[in-house]
């Protein structure tokens, strides 16, 4: 038993430490095809090398959320194997597209620790970075999780709570080198709506729904080498149900949002996100969005929209929280992100 | 809601119009691998680059039916989102193989319109073309669908019913440039039967069966970016069942037909096809074929067989229609196509 | 019916014959991605081109078990279509890694025959070889199966029982050209345990479990072009259950063994294996290993471990056989293999 990974406990983290995560991963057209099989993904920039080249990129990148999952998956054995809850995300920035042929690895800096008052667990903040084979950072985000203590009675570490921006400012967003939407082909992209057509406060019901199967979420979660037992082993939880990886819901909702946001091509910022309720096989996932903000960028023809993306398994579109301020039981995900949109 | 695609209604089509479909798609070895995982596909020309090169092609193409699905999938948001029925196919020709690395897009010319006598719907005929990144047409077929009217009372358009060949003549078939079956390796292909071994009227029971799962047909249908709600959303139909994309049954039957038609390598013509009854998860798909015609081609060692391919979910092989002339309830598909076979 | 493959019967084999199996297969990044989606595979050498290059290989190979499945799948139509039981494996050696772009074909030499005393069936031994497009042998193994006779009363062939090594000697193992673990990065590989840290007799519970779905085992089995009806057709067996391909259990167990054997990177020898009990969808597969032997190799920094890998669907880890010497009902697989491990 000593040779298997027991995961880290709250006591095993110290602020300032950098964790180098294992199992680098080379992605190819295979990952891209699987992403399109697993999600109804249709953003043209990620579907067509030709469309991407017309927009100034060398080829169609791997979907930004797939890049996120690859980077995230590597952190699971070191960060969330003994996690009681995935509490939040902040300051996520996609710094460079990931292309077929790239090899991705991850590191995490421990940037905050706070033991819970019950003495049995604590909150760990990490800033995770994804790197490609040239040592360039492709993604950078903060995540915080509640982690079990190994010994409930042990001393609490010094409290360090990182200062995190609730929202990335537009000038913090990184537009991929060369991106140019001046000659953007709205016909091939699938919708005519430009950046200027979206108003702050506007809401969009993405209409479509997908009923989730066990085989699909497990294929996805394994593809990102996420090893958390609860996703795969029907014996891991008392109720015998396999909990669906929250990232599967993110990708499903983002793909569904094509219908109304087909031109919100590139995800460049993650301001925050909450997995409001668990998702299980048999749930039918739907999505709606709200335009939270708009910003210009320095790239030709490229604007940015700050969007709330909400995934549900039923209920009225646009319903989010109850009178008690808590998420309604049908809400699965509340994500706040920045996307690049043609002007 | 205004930003999502409501689909087109019968009134939105006019004869002579060309619809440019959205979301071009680059295919890779990933799509090829997924096709082999989703269907028991074993035709050697599509499985082995080396076998394809021995037959004069530069590499193994993407399966012809996969090429069809990619082209077809793009048309769904513009042609069949409000379709009440998929009525037929005609004059389908594969003009050029699709290879990994190719980027495929689709256009459709509206070639016929006829309002139904009930005034609530009408039939739309489109000629759809698939194009690669060099602007070459890779596939060309006619499909007609029954589409709902937006306003039942509105005026009927002029009736235009296109003249369509019930069967493509052999000299209309396009043999891929360079194809040469002179040194065809029957051993590696899996069966010894040549073009001359098949007699018109001969029937073949393909013996094998595959029980269909929800996850599989959804993976396939998403891979082709077909977005029709009925395939994915268990809430889309009153009976709560997800209807399986007819193309999934086509590919399953074609792959099963390897057993007896291993040398019917390339699909080059689609004379017609009917989705006789709906297919659902849990059905076990089987297939049988009938040789309808034989023809020579100008390519070395290459003959053509016209084949009826029938998919069933039970019942006797070779049973097709009842005394009333209607398809038997277990028949799923009746497809009429031309394939290239070594002499 | 005459054109479909009825499979071979016991009478159809003769010692000395070489069977050339059909349908060569080119593999790509697509097969690699699917392997990672189907199994929780995390061995770094097969996940990262960069890691593989640091170990002296040109790129990350296709997983060794995937190579095995591709080679094995081709033999099914000729060897096991009428098999009553898959009896054993011996003398399996991986001779060369398989890389994306390689085209694999298989041949089998019939090396043994023994009719059963009931006169209704017999045992056939074959030595199967996998070849790449350069004619190099990539894999070589012996398998024996019990095959039905076509005519129960027919004459028995001369009995030939091949002499097979119960265990490959270390000097029979082939270390891939260039492999060098001198600068092996244990951090990126995921575990610190070196060859010298494993003691003969040591057992490891791999802890994780995966609940199997019908869609997944069928995707996998089709991907390897294994056509045995019992895996796909719920009507093929009286109980209506689809039997899971034994190789799916092998790959699942091997991938699960990462947790504790992350550095057992390359599988180079297969000493033997038994599919102890059938596996069905809904079973939760777990795994444990026992270190059976250790050996040095001539390659820099490279040692070999002989490992027993046991897959179960429940029961106590490390339990294998009952007092009657038979496998316990929860044991699915008992595999004996050699793996290469950094010193």
Task: Describe it.
- Chains A, B, C: This is MaoC family dehydratase.
- Chains A, B, C: InterPro entries: HotDog_dom_sf, MC_hydratase, MCH/BMMD, Thiol_ester_hydratase_Rv0216.
- Chains A, B, C: It comes from Roseovarius pelagicus.
- Chains A, B, C: Pfam families: MC_hydratase (PF19315).
- 3 copies of one chain form a homotrimer.
- Chain A is an alpha+beta fold.
- Chain A has one domain (10-178, 186-342): Thiol Ester Dehydrase, Chain A.
- Chain A has 8 helices and 12 strands.
- In chain A, strands 1, 2, 3, 4, 5, 6, 7, 8, 9, 10, 11 and 12 form a 12-stranded antiparallel β-sheet that branches.
- In chain A, a hairpin with a 5-residue loop joins β4 (103-115) and β5 (121-131).
- The longest helix of chain A is centred in the N-terminal third of the chain and has 16 residues, at 64-79.
- The radius of gyration of chain A is 20 Å and the shape is globular.
- The A-C interface holds A 1, 3-5, 20, 22-31, 33-34, 77, 100, 103, 105, 133, 213-216, 218-220, 222-223, 225, 227, 229, 232-236, 242 and C 28-34, 36-42, 44, 47-51, 60, 100, 187-191, 193, 197, 204-211, 213-216, 219, 259-262, 284.
